[in-house]
Every structure is written in structure tokens, then in C-alpha cells.
Write a structure and sequence with these properties.
heterodimer, B: 109 residues, mainly alpha
Amino acid sequence: MIARRRFLTLAAAGLATPALGKSIDLRLPGGPSARRLTDAFPGKRGMILQRTTPPLLETPLAAFDTGIFTPNDRFYVRWHWPFPTEIDPRAFRLTVDGHVATPLALSLRDIAALPHFEIAAVNQCSGNSRGVFEPRVAGAQWAHGAMGNAVWAGVRLKDVLARAGVKNGAARVRFSGLDAPPLPESPDFAKSLSVDHALDGEVMLATHMNGEPLPLMNGFPLRLVVPGWFSTYWVKMLDRIEVLSGADDNYWMAKAYLVPSAPGGGIAPGTKDFPRQPISTMVPRAFITNVIDGSRRHWQSALPVGGIAFGGNAGVARVEVSGDGGATWRDAALGRDAGRYSFRRFDTIIAAPRGATKLMARCTSTAGDIQPLTGIWNPGGYLRGQVETVAVDFI
Amino acid sequence: MRVTLALVALLTLGAAPAPRIVSIDLPFDATPFPELGAGAPSPDAINNNCLSCHSAEMVLTQPALTRAEWAGEVTKMRTVYKAPVVETDDAAIIDWLVANSARLAKAGG
């Protein structure tokens, strides 16, 4: 009662908001850029609130400065539709059916009995960094934090499919979860992979991330992990695997998450008719995480610059850092290699100029792909991969 | 020996996925779309149609879009996602969205 009265008093004075004051400026061109930082979601803390319902929670870039694995309580969250907020692991079943010899209904115990598999891999939303696309496009207005890196543990998809027996003539494997649209006629979320991809021994079903059961908001009790591919395929609360003998024409494969077929996935802004294809593999990216974009700080002759990089669908071969807006570059030291799909730490020390400058980091993947200085554009705001700039004013 | 086996069985069960029911409470945001001031389009139509599937932040975080772009978004919500947006409310919804974009553009972000 006292707390409520105090809240009302503060509210009347314009001092109390549901956010209790904490906010962050995402520096999205043209805005709106201010977002609340929230601790209101169970098992999550310090998240950028993009949307309460269904939840869109972004990880602040500074959270990636503490290590290459993103803590579960800082890992971003993205749902299209409402999802169950209560799961009974004993009652849960994964259905495997369609073009298979033996349809299955697997319990979590059945799944845990299969050979254990784990892999470090970056999970990145297709639309990560959409909010900094220019010209701006509609959609979830993420800055750069719709991504995270974790050790995913569970079983290989190929071992699950082997139990069901994929029949000759299978073409695609489709995945869907317990999330469901509020109206039955809305398109239920489902994604598919080619059979060859599904059987490659890397695509897996995770029950754990970073040594803990998946947080419910990250897909408990089971999520698909597709290393090197964008998160749209990493179906959460996975409860159905359907082997298809033909193409998958469901909305989420045929109409949504499409990118221009042109190499690099970019087109001229405003282009209306162009060939499209489903988004697939990620591209190399690097992010400076120890200096905040738009910050002012005291000049120091030797400035440590560090962050995280990933190679997209390959490992990190090299990261270069520039302290002068890309005029000169120096190689950063690379941290521990946790696998080709993982974040990798980079660190160096640069001689920073006085006054305003732009810091940059550029990743080259082990496949030889290097981040370009200028970016692509497409109407979905997908596939951003250009070198990012951290503006800093040394005083 | 039998006791040891039973212990092993128990430990094995313990390593299996947590059998407990996992339950969370999600926060709820009921903040309506705001009034834009005297003479500006009313938020009534957008409040009546656009809050059953997502909270207002989905719209309020968008960049300044053109009338055609906003009309496209409203159409997409109805035709693709089957949102129950009353067709006769389209004009009032889009008017509010365009006015809010104008306010955003004026504020310079």
C-alpha cells in the first residue's frame, strides 16, 4: 500500500515510469532510438525492450564484452506468435512424421538416450541491425544485439531422423514449435531445410545452452540449432518434424524471410520486382564492444579496442581495427578458437587521434569473405554485414 | 550390488531433462497509442484494432514511414497474418500512423 502510494506520488511528479528510468539510445538514423532497459522478463536482465507482446528483447552490445559466450539471462528473445508459458517436460512429445518409415512420438527421455552432441554457434536474427538500414525499412527495429553465442547441447538431427527412417524421395524436412497464432487462419510458424542439410551431422536438437536447460523464452524444452544459418531456422519449442517429399510452400518459406537472389542479397532501394530466395547462411561480422558508439571519453595515447567477431558460415581468420575511420588498419590479436561457428574475441591497442573519430573492426572469414566498407540494402532489412562504425569523441 | 545398480539408475534419471513443470509469467503492456494533440487524428481506431496481437511498441518503434508504406503494413496485417482489422477503420488507422510519423520526422528522431 505504501509502495503503491509512493509510486502514485512519483508518477504524479512525472518521475516514475514502468521502466523506472533506465533507457538506452540505439542511435538509429532518424529514430525513434530510445528504448527501455528491462528486468521484467523472467530469467532475463538488462534487456533492451523492443516489444512486450510477443516479446522482442535485444542484448546490449556491452554484454558481449564480457566473454564469447552470451549469458542465458542476456540472450536475445524473438517470437512471432504467442507461446506456452508453462511446459510439462514429462508430457512433452516430439512428433516425427511425414515421408518416414516409422512415425515417432519421442519423449525428452527418448531424445536424451541418443548420442550426445554439442557445438558452439552464433544465433543471429535475420533482421539483426535492421534499425540501422538506410533508407529505413519496416520490421523489428533491432540495433546490433539480436544475436548471441552459446554452447548448444543435445542430439544430432540425423540421429533422430535415422530412428524414423527417411524414405527415398524425401526432399525437405520441416520444423515447427509450440508457438501458435492467436487466430487459426493465421500462418503457423514453420521452417524447412533440405534433407541433405538436415542429415549433415551438425544440425541438432538442443535441450541445453551454456550448460543449463534452455530458458523457456529461448525455446525450452527443445530447439533446432542450424550452425552458420540465420536464426529463423532455429525453431524454438520444437515439437514437430515433418519429412516432405516435395517443396515447402508454407508462408514462412515461400513468402517471408526472402532475400534478393542477387549475389550479396542487395538491391537498389525502391526496386519492386526482383528474384527472391529464402535467406540462408550468415556473413562475417565484427563488433567493437569495449567502446560505446556515440560516447565521449578522455583521450589516451594507447587505446585498447576489443570485441567479438564471427565468420558467418565459416571461422574467423582475421580481424583488423581502424582508429581513423578506415584510413589505416592494424591486425588485432585473436582469442581462443571455440569452433568455426562461434564468436571469437579480438583485441588490440591503437593510437587514437584527439577529437572526434570513428573506430572500425573488419572480419575476414576462413572462407576468405571480408566485410565490405559499404553495405547492401533490401526491403526486409536482412543480411547486414558491412563494417560497423563506432563514433567516439576523445576529449 | 543391487543397491549400487539402483543408485546408478537414480543418478541416470537425475541426468535426464528436468521433470519439473517449467512455468513463467510474462509481463503485459497495455499502454495505448497516444493522443497526438488538438486537431490531430484520433488514436481510437488503431487502439481498437491493433493491440490484440501485439503491444503498441511494435508500431511506436518504427521509423517514419510514408502513407503508402503504412497502408501496405495495415494490408499485410489483414491479408497475410489475418488480423481482424475492421476494413472501414483503415483510413482512420493510417491517418494516425502518418500523423505519428510526421511527429517523429519533425522531432528528428
